[in-house]
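EI: anyone free to look at a 358-residue chain?
SC: sure, send it
EI:
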Amino acid sequence: MSIKVRIPTPLQKLTNNNIEVECEGTNVRELIINLDKKYPGIKERIYDENNNLRRFINFFVNDKDIRFLQGDKTELKDGDELSIIPAIAGGAGLTEEQIERYSRQIILPEVGGKGQEKILNAKVLIIGCGGLGAPCAYYLAAAGVGKIGLVDSDKVELNNLQRQITHFMKDVGKHKTESTKEKLESINSDIKIVTYPLRVTSNNIMDIIKEYDIIVDGSDNFPTRYLVNDACVISKKPLSHAGILRFDGQITTIIPNFGPCYRCIFPDPPPVGMVPSCQEAGILGVVAGVLGVLQATEVLKYILGKGELLVGKLLVFNSLEMSFRKLNIQRSEECPVCGKNPTIKELIDYEQFCQVKS
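SC: here you go
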């Protein structure tokens, strides 16, 4: 009977730096005893002097906490996986409540305690608390991002509720930033939410984004998209960009100096009236949800330093076909903001498109 055991960072020195090991045992206690025979010293770190499991260490069989099963008498079967999750894992340490809250993330070897601490220390700014920003904010708050900034000048309207999931009926007429803050705090009181009930401009955006590690563009108009892109490139801030319309969406991740920016793909905003807004053409609400969650995914990957980001890629989603296409995009040497000889060195406010409200 072979059981896979995931070893946390503090115990890896006992397992010859192996993250995963194989061992046998009919239950958790027997497995740990056998594990100690192979790697002496493990049992004394897991059990106290009274032969009870130490309270600062949690154990998961597959994805179930043994505290809610039969403790160390929990039976094991061939192919099961045991994850050992201590309260301290490579840094300042997590509280027992944090370990419980984020346990499904922590047991991922790509995250672990150290990765969760990175998430808890991260600062993310979301520009726009609408169709994209709302689902993105939900999942980042749930994941434990330590500081989330929310930027939006609008108030909640009834037509927002079809897709902007941080707003409820009772919130109509309330500032979107406050409505979203209220929902995020009800999900996770462990994090800090900062609101900016205003529209970003060339005069204020640099001061706002400087406080954050990565920016999420969930805006609904071209002037803001180009302004955010230019500000992030100039200040070398990573940016997750997404756009939605009708049944379609697109997303890319911009890392200044390491890949193309938004202007490399679309050098200039379209003429007035050339591209309809969501107000004019409509949007299937779930499309906003799909793209917002993809933005949250990119942000978490960036924080953790894991996986392949959508740098140099444009992921295009069509909900009617239920298709994703990943297109290669290149950094343009002629780009006016990140090219060899940039002409945009200072921020300006662009003509208002797509019925942008003043």
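EI: Residues 285-304 form the longest helix (20 residues).
SC: 👍
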